[in-house]
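Service request form, structural biology core

Requester: graduate student, group of Dr. S.
Request type: structure prediction, single chain
Budget code: on file
Notes: please return the result as C-alpha cells.

Sequence provided:
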Amino acid sequence: MVRVAVIAGDGIGPEVVGAGMRVLEAAKEADSSVELDFTDFPWGCEYYLEHGRMMPEDGLETLKGFDAIYLGAVGWPTVPDHVSLWGLLLPIRRGFDQYVNLRPARLLRGVRSPLSDPGTLDITVVRENTEGEYSDAGGRMYRGTPHEMAVQESIFTRRGVERVVRYAYELAGERRGLLVGATKSNGISITMPFFDEIFREVGDEFPDVEASLMHADALAAQIVLRPQSFDVIVGSNLLGDLLSEITAAVSGSIGIAPSANLDPDRRFPSLFEPIHGSAPDIAGQGVANPSGAIWAAALLLEHVGHAEAGRRILDALETTISDGTRTRDLGGAATTDEMTDAVIRELLGGDPGGP
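Core staff response, request fulfilled:
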C-alpha cells in the first residue's frame, strides 16, 4: 500500500487536487494493482491565519512516514509570499532533500501553442531544488532609513550541483541524448563558472550525451524560437525556475504543467504538484484547469512504481483535450468538474462516477 499525504493548500488548490484525487481513484478502479491510501492535511494560508504557522511544528515529522505528497497550491493575498513559501513548500523540499525539481513540458494533442510553428515540443527541465539562489542566507540593515540595504547570498555546493547535473545527464541518456546546461557565467562571475566546471566534469562520464552550456537569456530566446531542438535542460534553482515557466508557456498553458520534487535516493517522500499558483482571482469559480494536477498525479504513480497507470492517465488527459473538452485557458468552456469527468470517462471507458 502506497501512503500519500494530501495537502490541497490555497486558492484553486482544493479544486484541482480534488480533480486529481478523483482521477487517482479511477486509476485504482481501472487497475487493481494500484493501491493508494490518502491522508488529508489542512495546511496552508488558512491554517496560518488561524494558527500563526503554515503547518504544525512537527509537520515534517508527520509527513516523513508517507511515500509521496500531493500538493495543490500555496499562497493567498493576505499572507506574504515569503511567509507562505518558506512556511510550507520550501521546508518540505529541503527537509526531505528533494534536490531535483522535474518539470516536463510537452505539446499535448489538441493543445495550441502560442508559437506559430512549435514543431515537436518535448522538453524536461531539471531544476536544482535545495540551494542556489533561493538560499536563506543574508539579511537587511538600517530598516526604515534612506540607507536601508538587503543582502542575500547564493550558495552553490559541489555536492548540490554535481548530483543534480548527474541526474540530468542520466535522464538525457534515457531520452534523446541531448542536454543543455543553463548558465550565466558571463555576468555572474563566481557561482556560474563553478556550475559550468562541474557540468563539464560530470559530462566526461557520459560520452554518449551531446551536452552544451548556454547562457540562460539566450536559451530562453531559443526555447521560443526553436523548442523542437531541446530535450533536457538543467539549471540552478532560479534559472531552472524561470526556464520551466517558459517551457510551460510555449506548450500551451501554464495550467497544464506538472512538477515533481524528487528525492531520487528515496530516503524521504517526494512531492508532486501543478506548477501554476493558487490563482485567488478564480478560486471557487469551478473554472480552474485540472490538467497540471492530473499530470502531477500521473508522475506520482510513476514514482511509486505504477508507471503504466501513470501513462494511462496522461493518455486519457491528452485524448480528452484532443477530443475538444477544454477549460477556458485552453480556449474551451468546460468547468473543472466537466474536464475531470471527461478524463475519467476516457480512463475507465464508462461513467465517471462522483457527484
